[in-house]
Amino acid sequence: MKIKRWIGYFVLGVIVFGSLPVQACTLWAVNGSLVNGGGSMLVKNRDWLPNQYESLKAVFPKTGYSYFGLYTEGKYSGMKAGINKTGLVVISATAGSIPAEARRAMPHTGGVLVKLLKECSSVDEALARTDLFLGPEILMLADKNKVATIEIGPEGHFAVTVKENSILYHTNHYVSEGMLEFNRTIGESSQKRYDRIGQLLSSVTEPYDFSTVISFSNDQNDGPDNSIFRTGSMPTKPRTMAVWAVQIPPEGSPEVYIRILNPNEAEKVVRITADDVFTGKLVLD
To answer: What's the pLDDT score for residue 93?
Structure first.
């Protein structure tokens, strides 16, 4: 499948969406000597109410780096995870420990994932863009050398954690010491998913391989509403809508794995290299 050079997209669904934001998403990453072959691996389970349809889009701007990502469209539209041509990956999660009404009332930077991917070639360059760290949100970043999280709180507060030869994981509440005061309420699901992904990551005999790291996205240890892979105890409850995973090797093209679980559609799995997209080809199995 060809993707036009100016702006291409492969749509897996069209989003229909009119609900309040949901406190969801689990993020995790592994880097360096812990990775089989080196480099970095990063995964996001995206959770939401089952009234959305996820899509994939590649963008080739006139200026800046080309990028490719998981999108939603509608009231809370935008990129939810992405990778650019240089191999920088950025994913996000809601800072659900601050109520939605309060988050919406706070100043924030719109489209921060797109800005970072379009303008930055590495984790270090992205971390230097502190002008973009405004409005409650949790970001996780990776390149072939390191992984990092940015916990963004209210009033310009943020905390950065950078790791090499280590693991990182996050859900929907602040965990950095300087950010704990901004947790108004830590949801049961956020805490259980945080504890569980940490347990799974610590249970692996190093080095980690990509299939193992992806397999954590299927974990249902804590039931339909609190597991890493959420099925929802009722049709109107949040559930896992997509999985986004990237392996960034020390040399060569990153491998991208996307699993789409749109409501009322058959499950779709896309597994490609980033070069397949950035050279104008999208190969589906």
So the answer is: 97
